[in-house]
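Table S2 (text version). Query chain:
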Amino acid sequence: MQITFTDEELMIQETARQFALSELKPNAEKVESANERELFLSNIKKLSELGFMGINIEGQYGGIEAGSAAFSLAITELARGCASTAVTTSVTNMVAEVIQAVGNAQQKQHYLPKICTGEYTAAGFCLTESGAGSDPSAMKTKAVKDGNDYILNGSKIFITSAEYAGVFVVWAVTDSEAGRGKGISCFLVDSSLEGITISKAEDKMGQKASATNEVSFANCKIPASALLGEENNGFKIAVTELAGGRIGIASLALGLGLEALDYAREYIKERKQFGQALAKFQGLQWMLADRYTELEAARLLIMQAAVNKDNNLPFATAASMAKVFASEKANDACYTALQLLGGAGYIKEYPLERLARDVRITTIYEGTSEIQRLIIARDILA
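Corresponding structure-token output:
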């Protein structure tokens, strides 16, 4: 199999690389401070202006129609500069793709341009609840029909970008009597509606610049026109669209792993022990060789999933394979890189401390490694 990229895809990759080098990487540590939120959000705005919030969205809605392979290339490069920026970009693109795939003409015309152009700083994907993480079919949030409206009650946790999202895609139970996963619907909910409360950002281990909040709905009235797709068919939307999101997180993990290894490679070429550069020691050479090989395999898995998606072929299992492998091998890469720096890797003056913190969540969000293995196994055994 030979994977080649179009001139447009390569241009998007290079644009993302240059943006990461000039705008993100120099400020990656700085934006972790809550006092630098405006700097973080200004970079998100700049990415919107470059077209990165609608990479796979049709041009008539403000997107650039570049496809999933271009999306993957862009997220990988952005992650090398700042994982928090990359995850905000990835999730916002995922919400836009949900609307494009399932929304009616009016919904697409209303929301997609606002997401793509940056009128909405970001968009939120509201699925997870305290008792419904890996098993979203167990959700308790409810939407009850009331004339021409729905009344939404419940709470969602760990929502990326919630405090500056312009719109949420929200899943809620609309038929309590239906079987598990069969009575769930999906809604487009404007963040400005009454009855929505967004908690303060969680104090996280990594990816600190990206806000992660709880979103609560208390008798929140949403119009019936906010229903996305068919009533009681929302669970299928979640399962389908999460597969696309996993390409983004796999790509993000890959970027973190590559950034860590590249830094460690240059470090051991300069650092000397026992009278020679650390890079001269075979044991350390093999550590680098193994990690780079694993990340190259991860890159190929990601591209297989992206190419399948772009060609309207089944890609969910490929996306799960890419996500579990890339995220786990990126964790290995970051921790190997930290080890190669020795004590220096544990010091915040060097980027490995941050990269190791940022990469850890990639085996958890958008479906844990354990869930990915369940998806893969079910497909194999079907």
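Notes on Table S2: The longest helix spans residues 234-270. The CA atoms of residues 183 and 232 lie 4 Å apart.
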